[in-house]
Amino acid sequence: MERHPEQPSPPQSSTTFTDLKPHGWRNGATWTYLVMLLASGVALLVSFVLSAETLQMARHPGQSLGCDVNAVLSCSTVAQAWQSEIVKFGELSFPNAFFGIAAESVFVTIAVIGMARMTMPKWFATCTWLGSLAALAYSYWLTSQSLFVINALCPWCLVLMFATTIQFMAVSHATVTVQHLPPHASSLRTYYRLNIDLMVDAVWIVALITLILVKDGAMLFR
């Protein structure tokens, strides 16, 4: 009987633990973009409220606003500071809230597109993340100005800051798990697959609350 040479066994899969893609409902398009939609919707609503209060102050100078609680929680004090109107063209100035309406409307639209599971070009997903990062940085700058320069906090602005933070968390989550960007970032996929982001996000939110309480906690409830 003729002997056949032993056939080589097929190569084994080289997939490692860190190469596994995140799975489960938390890492799907529906959940990640739903969180983005809710956060962006809250930010959009707050931007409308702040815009309305800016117009109210323009019509009735010197009148206190409804969100003026005390010397520290005072929308009027923050709204009268130069930081509330960064963009100026000659003698015209534009409140930050107007730009918040424009930006958050875009994020709401993108979140709806994401929930519909429509394919996004890589450049578009990248620009979405960069835009969310820019919105977060701008929000944190304004909050730092309120805490350490103006020495007054706007309650609506605080809501906007936390909404922008959660929006950035959701956009980052969707960028990695749904859009698969960056393409070879196995460590980021592991970060979300093991739900490490839940712990980091919780610490992040608690750190923000702690900072506010340490700085102005004694005055917030007077």
Automatic annotation (TrEMBL):
Primary localization class, coarse: membrane
SMART domains: VKc
InterPro entries linked to this entry: VKOR (IPR012932), VKOR_Actinobacteria (IPR041714), VKOR_sf (IPR038354)
Entry keyword annotation includes Coiled coil: no
Name listed for the protein in its UniProt record: Putative membrane protein
Highest classification ranks of the organism: Bacteria, Bacillati, Actinomycetota, Actinomycetes, Bifidobacteriales
Gene3D superfamilies assigned: VKOR domain (1.20.1440.130)
GO cellular component, one term: membrane
GO molecular function, one term: oxidoreductase activity
